Amino acid sequence: MKHVIETKEVSGSPNFQLTTFQKLVDWAVNQSRANSLWPMPFGTACCAIEFMATAASRFDLARFGMERQAFSPRQADVLICAGRLPFKLAPVIRRIYDQMPQPKWVISMGACASTGGIFDNYAMVQGIDTIVPVDVYVPGCPPRPEGLLYGILLLHKKIKGESLFDAVPRRDEQPLDERGLRLPPAEIDEISEPFGNSVHQFRSS
Amino acid sequence: MNPSVAAARATFGDAIGRAVEARAETSVTVSAARLLDFMRWLKDTPGQEYNYLVDVTAVEFRDRERPLEVVYQLRSLEHKANLRVKVELDPRGELAVDSVTSLWAGANWLEREVYDMFGVVFAGHPDLRRILMWETYAEGHPLRKDFPLRGRFSRAEQVRQALNISPEAHYSMEELSIAESFDDLPADMRDRLRRGERDVVPGSE
Predict the structure, then answer these.
(1) How distant, in Å, are the alpha carbons of B53, B80, B97, B177 from that of B104?
(2) Gap between the terminal Cα atoms of chain A
(3) Domain range spanning residue A122?
(4) What are B60-77's pLDDT values in tens digits?
(5) Is A62 among the domain residues?
(6) Which residue of A has its CA nearest to B135?
(7) Domain count along chain B
C-alpha cells in the first residue's frame, strides 16, 4: 500500500516528467536513426562479395532501412569495413571515418577486418579497431549475409539503447593523438598479438 | 631444348651458363654483365624475336649458398616459343642488374615490383621506386629470406607510420591524371598534394 502512494508522489515530480520526456525524445530519435542507417561500404576483399549479396534482392538490406548505399562518407552513418585492411589503406579508412558526420557507427565485417585473420604478416592491420573505433564485430570468413544482417540488427539494438542526454555512449570524435595514434602503443601491440594458429610462427621466421 | 640456347651459346660463349629443360620449358642462365646484350639479341635477332616480356620476378632460396635469381619470362609471338632467362646474384652482396626497360617498356612496373620486394636495383630504370609498399616504407624488402614475417617494427610503430602517411602521397600527380587541373583544385587539396612525400608537383612553382 505504502509503495503505491510513493509512486504517485514520484509521478508528479518534475524529475519524473523530465525523464519521461527524455525517454520519449530518445525513443523517437533512436527509432529514426536505427531504421534509416546509410551504410558506407568499404569493401576490400571477399567480404565485399558477401556484402553485395546482402544488399542484393535475396537478402535485401533495404528491409532494414539501408535503402541507400552512401558511396560518399559525407552522407553516411555506418562504415562497414568488409575485408582485410592493409597498412597502406589505414590512412584512407581513417580519413573516410573522419569525414563522416556525427552520429556514426562502424561495423567490422569478417575475421580479417576484426583481427587480421589469416594475414598475420607485415602488410596487414591486425584489427581495424587500432585505426577507428568499432561498434559491432561480425565474425566469419567471410560471414554469410545472415551474419552481417544479424550484426546490423545488433547495431540497431545498440543505437536504440543510446540516449541523447547521456554523454558517455554518444559518439565522441576520438581524434588521433599527437603521435597520430588512436590507442596507446602498448594497447595496439596487445591487440595485435598473434593468436590461434599464428602463435606457432615466430616473429623472426 | 629451345633452339635459341644453342644459338646464344654460339654468340655469347661463356656468358651463357647452364640451360635446363623441364616440362618442355627452357631456362637459361646468363651473366649479369651480358644481360642487356643478351636480351637485346633475343629481342632483335631474326629467328629469335622474343618480343613479349611476360614477367620479371625474383627467387631467393632458403639455402644460403644458392644465389638469388632474377627471372625473365619471354615469349616470341612470331615463333610461338617461350624462354626463361635467369640472372644469378649473390644475396649477401649488392643486388644490381641492368634494366631492360629500354627494350620492353612493360618491364617498368615489373622491375619496380622486384625492387620493392627484393631490393634488386635495376641500373638505367627511369623511375625506380616502390610500387606495392608505400615510398616511405622503412622496414626493408619483404620477400627477402632475412625479412621477418610480421615485419621489423612493432605493430604500434607500423600503425603509427601508416597513419602518418598522407594518402595523396601514394600517387604522383601524373598517376592521378589531375596535373593539368591542379589550379582548379580546392586550396586544401592543393596544400595536401604539395606536402606529399613526393614534393615534386608539376604545375606548382
Answers:
(1) 7, 18, 15, 24
(2) 74
(3) 36-164+179-194
(4) 998 888 999 999 999 999
(5) yes
(6) A88
(7) 1
